[in-house]
Amino acid sequence: xxxxxxxxxxxxxxxxxxxxxxxxxxxxxxxxxxxxxxxxxxxxxxxxxxxxxxxxxxxxxxxxxxxxxxxxxxxxxxxxxxxxxxxxxxxxxxxxxxxxxxxxxxxxxxxxxxxxxxxxxxxxxxxxxxxxxxxxxxxxxxxxxxxxxxxxxxxxxxxxxxxxxxxxxxxxxxxxxxxxxxxxxxxxxxxxxxxxxxxxxxxxxxxxxxxxxxxxxxxxxxxxxxxxxxxxxxxxxxxxxxxxxxxxxxxxxxxxxxxxxxxxxxxxxxxxxxxxx
Amino acid sequence: xxxxxxxxxxxxxxxxxxxxxxxxxxxxxxxxxxxxxxxxxxxxxxxxxxxxxxxxxxxxxxxxxxxxxxxxxxxxxxxxxxxxxxxxxxxxxxxxxxxxxxxxxxxxxxxxxxxxxxxxxxxxxxxxxxxxxxxxxxxxxxxxxxxxxxxxxxxxxxxxxxxxxxxxxxxxxxxxxxxxxxxxxxxxxxxxxxxxxxxxxxxxxxxxxxxxxxxxxxxxxxxxxxxxxxxxxxxxxxxxxxxxxxxxxxxxxxxxxxxxxxxxxxxxxxxxxxxxx
Lengths: 277, 277
What we know:
By secondary structure, chain A is of the alpha/beta class. The first copy, chain A, has helices at residues 3-14, 31-34, 39-51, 63-66, 69-82, 99-112, 126-129, 151-154, 164-176, 191-201, 219-226, 237-240, 248-263; strands at residues 18-22, 57-60, 88-95, 117-120, 139-145, 158-159, 162-163, 182-186, 207-209, 231-235. Chain A has a single domain (3-263), classed as TIM Barrel (Alpha-Beta Barrel). In chain A, strand 4 (117-120), helix 7 and strand 5 form a beta-alpha-beta unit.
């Protein structure tokens, strides 16, 4: 099954394009898990147990596991093993490097970790993205307009009257638009640009939309701007940090249910590959 | 000792700003090490033994270790342990992510792996670089103009009559130029731009210059363009892939000696912090 087919099945199952970010900070774990053999893994496993029926995808950000050394890598390995097969996994790694190196990053993320999708950074150029598109059934989310304030520093600089991020969109669409593996990252903190980008790329190109919750993005505005296109709307701390006591996993579930309501799309027309909408 | 002081001592020791890239591809190792318990580590250890007196720094690219899973991480750990203390270590990771995540990457690279320097990707903006500058004695090499052909795709796009990479240089100089930790990555494949960049940033800001050897950059042209500034000129495959038989480590040494000759600076005035040149 392709990424889009798996996405579609997950969306039908949950009724909303929710992605939960597993950016688990080992220094801020709730008391019930700090005594576990691997606290980060214990935390993630509890979150997955109470939320996997509510989300289409989990997105571990690799920074939070790499900073934990061997234990962090063990936590990531265990976390991926604990995610049910009907939930997609997105490796948020934002890698980007010259050709022979990018091949190794693609191998690490798609072969070693077996993520269904990854995030990549396009600054170094189109040749650095190519190796990630050698895996047909996966999705490659290219950074376009990120959710943070600093996204204005370079991504919005005007080139020939058009912001840099639209040049990135254009080049990637022209080169990889037909692969079935191209997606983009666009922050929920930019709803106007999100709507414009969705219009530019059409409904079938997946968007990974971070920034809802702790970063200030609004769920309802995001769903409106996305206009029913293929999307995964990510919430990290808004769900995983909803509770800090013994009931942290139940609180995460309650928060996830709330986001599902906010993100619900009553008529999930997304990715109707028959074109018969 | 600061990064610059350690660099200076290393340069005096070797007479040339040689950095050796440890981009060890586990699938292309010479016969003598493939039977070792950890072939990548055995290879790197042999290379380090025969070349550490000739180089100022080693630069492992993390992709090559991440793609090896647990064994890859063990190889990186063992490699860093095998590098003598008077040789600098550069973690070529090209990370970049929003604030709380960038903090975790900085912790992974500077605290967990204890690299003396790292490479970072500035596309997401100045706020994403800040956490890396919280480690006073280290160096942060920001991607400016990379060595690959695709560097023209976005890095050279013109913004207000100036290429994007110069906007990146300017913003970083203005924000982090006084920290003593700022450096840039500029490919040896662009000698003209390298000379212009060196003139723009002055002699004291370190440049990491990849692309000499297999990628086509010329050692002598690089040294001329760099004009005696603080620099590390990286060679990877040109040294580590010099031999593929039982004498691979000796061949690597011979290649490294050749690059030292090509990169030799007879009067190492670099980083004379007294200003008394």
